[in-house]
Amino acid sequence: MKKPVIQFENFSFQYRSQTAPTLHEINLTIYEGEKVLIVGPSGSGKSTLGHCLNGLVPFSYKGEVSGSLKISGEDVKDLDIFSLSKKVGTVLQDPDGQFIGLTVAEDIAFALENDGAPQTHMFDKVAEVSKMVEMNEYLDSSLHQLSGGQKQRVSLAGVMVDDVEILLFDEPLANLDPATGKYAIELIDRIQNETNKTVVIIEHRLEDVLHCHVDRIIVVDDGRIIADMTPDELLASPVLEQCSIREPLYVKAAKYAGCELTPEMQPAHIESFQVDRCKAQLVDWFRKVDSPQPKAKTEAILELKDITFGYKPGRTTIQGVSFSIEKGEMVSIVGKNGAGKSTLSKLICGFEKPNAGQIYYRGQDISGDTIKERAARIGMVMQNPNQMISKQMIYDEVALGLVIRGVPDAEIKERVLKTLKICGLYPFRNWPISALSFGQKKRVTIASILVLEPEVLILDEPTAGQDFRHYTEIMEFLVELGRQGVIIIMITHDMHLMLEYTPRAIVIAGGEKIADDTAVNVLADSTIIEAANLKETSLFDLAQRAGIGEPKQFVDRFIAYDREVRQKWQ
Amino acid sequence: MAVEMLSYIERHSPVHRLTGVTKLICFMIWSSIAMLTYDTRVLTFLFLVSIGVFIISKVKLREVAFVLLFILFFLMINNLAIYVFSPQEGVRIYGTSHVLVDIGGGRYSLTLEQLFYQFNVTLKYFTVIPAAILFIVTTNPSEFAASLNRIGVSYRISYAVALALRYIPDIQRDFRNISMSQQARGIDMSRKEKLPKRIKNAASIIIPLILSSLDKIEIISNAMELRGFGKNKKRTWYRARPFQKIDIITIILFVLILIVSLYVTFHDGNRFYNPFS
Lengths: 570, 277
Description:
The structure holds 2 protein chains of 2 kinds.
Chain A: E1 4-15, E2 23-31, E3 35-39, H1 46-54, H2 56-59, E4 63-71, E5 74-75, H3 81-85, E6 88-91, H4 95-98, H5 104-115, H6 119-132, H7 148-160, E7 166-170, H8 178-195, E8 198-202, H9 206-209, E9 216-221, E10 224-229, H10 231-236, H11 239-242, H12 249-256, H13 279-288, E11 300-309, E12 318-326, E13 330-334, H14 341-349, E14 356-361, E15 364-365, H15 371-375, E16 378-381, H16 394-405, H17 409-422, H18 438-450, E17 456-460, H19 468-483, E18 487-491, H20 495-501, E19 504-509, E20 512-518, H21 519-523, H22 526-531, H23 538-545, H24 551-567
Parallel strand pairs in A: 3-8, 3-9, 6-7, 7-8, 13-18, 13-19, 16-17, 17-18
Antiparallel strand pairs in A: 1-2, 1-4, 4-5, 9-10, 11-12, 11-14, 14-15, 19-20
Chain B: H1 14-17, H2 20-36, H3 40-56, H4 61-85, H5 89-94, E1 99-101, E2 110-111, H6 112-138, H7 141-150, H8 155-184, H9 195-226, H10 245-266
Antiparallel strand pairs in B: 1-2
Helix pairs in contact in B: 2-6, 2-7, 2-10, 3-6, 4-6, 7-8, 8-9
Function (chain A): Probably part of an ABC transporter complex. Responsible for energy coupling to the transport system.
Family (chain A): Belongs to the ABC transporter superfamily.
Protein name (chain A): Sigma 54 interacting domain-containing protein
């Protein structure tokens, strides 16, 4: 009999500031050495569940608890956050925000310092743990110089110095490029195999987590556990679809083709998935579904010619990048963390001035224009909405740009309300922004740029922090803008997003453009995938294993079909 | 780039090799002398020494130029203000009056004494500023926290100070991003706009900056708590360094400078050096 380490019994929790409980009657037992994935749409309570495990609830976020939670046999009520932190090690999302030390070694040693460990002991322990996460050669490096994946390894090491029993990962894949995310999942798997710790992962990128073995998946929706089963069982069931969590693409494709999935077909991983049984249906479906129409060429609007730029003399961040974008096109800019994607967008907006090269807008050289002049045509939505919001009320925030431009009041009102309607924010127009969720705030920032009617819209990770339903809403809405002729440029790590919504992808690696092709072609090229830290799509594998000769066509058709199905949600 | 101003600059120099505690003690001695004395000879000596230390530290002038100019600007305002509000301060202190430029024979006549007095004030700034900048850019923030803690400041406060120093570059970067994106929405911060409007516009940059900084604070304080910060009365420091010979020598040297300076300053019972009598 395995030893239970986490036991929720009739556990409910209500934040002090909220009128309804966030978690209802949770009953959940997790056993020693298990690897459990918790998924759920945003606002479902999955993060709160994690906070209960590490003690942030109720010690930092106050509220009312009923029922009991035992961690390795001890009731959490009798513990404090510090003794809990010796049992549960938490790796928070966004490693940047949680680094405390300046160098790798210091950050790893932080918990030991707080315990008052002698210096020699710290040196030994840091050496040991850093070796485990393969960071022993970087002990004296500054944290800011590390790549996204290295940062995550450091934060993992920082909790492992404590010999915790449970490792809790809160959205470990957020902000990581696809290849690094894959590596992170492999690392978690390896550490668990070596140490036999209990691992709890909270993440909504299901397919990426399932890259390695997971014992159980727990689905949380509306503060309740609605499923608790093995990955194979879950993927064969309709639960994910019901609470709008994205299923792995190969599973979705098989379901569209009309395959009856069963746990015995082992759908949890594409490698183990028994395709044979639905081969015929897949091939049949492939034949039936229409392939999307390629878009007709229109006039080029935005053109970059040989742009070179460096923040410091002698070191270029962007090296000779050229491309042109046509009216109404949707383009993804993808590549590794730190490859120069954000810099490129800053150059287009005029936040930075290129050292060499020109930017043309409708054939006119705008390289010399100021930020303000460019802002009349080019709008930029930053990744973090909190960096843009400066008013208390939604209406005022969206109206801000128009007020400053001195637009007459009546026109402001009309344009703001129209934009709020498009962005699905009309019902909230008189709300304070502080009452909105992260995803809604993001929409407010998109609205505040859209209201200025830019002809080019640049979005940095538009779908970060959005669950599948909101993701679909935002993206469909951007597609609609594209139809009206607005150029949409997206900087993203999300391969699904790129594949589904942007027919064209520009790949940046080391400051240079290494590919400029259809999204499907980019993901079919293993050299590009490797150079830019991207990740192939499981749809190719599925098509190949089903014996479909044209895997790219299969992907195209799947995406067109899938979007049509999802449009009916709205 | 200005983004990096006032953050730790890694170099290999004898100044960097000193422990944070030594540097903190020396800096405190240094500023005490500069605060107490108006003796031109002492101030000149201190000024020359601080330039010497600056050279030894291998920190380049260009790396701190922005802060330096910023402070010089305030120094200038300060000097003007002294003259406006107290134009005969020098005469009062030194007891004589050598009028250089007679402005209506009254209060605002320029005297040699006033010039000399303001020269001393400026010199005081010049002895403290390089030392202060040097202290900040040559002390690793975490070691700085350890040092504060070592001289008796509670480790919570020490850490708060160190974190604040560490986040200076982050906040500068955020500020830049936010200001750019707000400018892109049409908020004009340049001189083309009238001052009251510019102040109002500044709010649209400050508010997001505060909001996103508050976010950061929440994340970091959660992260610290989850890793046991604040559990015990005492904590140890990974980066703590034992005193070495060079530290002890430096401190003795500075104490000697303190004693000599104070002796030179006060042996005639007045903290001003008077060349006029």
